[in-house]
Amino acid sequence: MQPRSSTHPDRPPASRLGRVATLTKLALAGAVAAGSIAAASPGQAAANPFERGPAPTQQSIERDGPYQVDTYATGSGLPGFAGGRIYAPRTTTGETFGAVAIVPGFVSSWESMQWIGPRLASHGFVVIGIDTITPVDLPTERGQQVDAGLRFLLNFPQTRSRVDPTRTAIGGWSMGGGGSLQHARNRSDYKAVVAFAPWNLEVKDMSAVRVPALIIGDQFDELAPNAEHAQPFYDTISAEKAFVSIAWTDHFYVWNPNRIQGSMTLSWLKRYVDGDTRYTPFLCPGPRGLDVQSYVASCPM
Question: Looking at 123, 137, 147, 174, which residue is catalytic?
Answer without folding.
Answer: 174
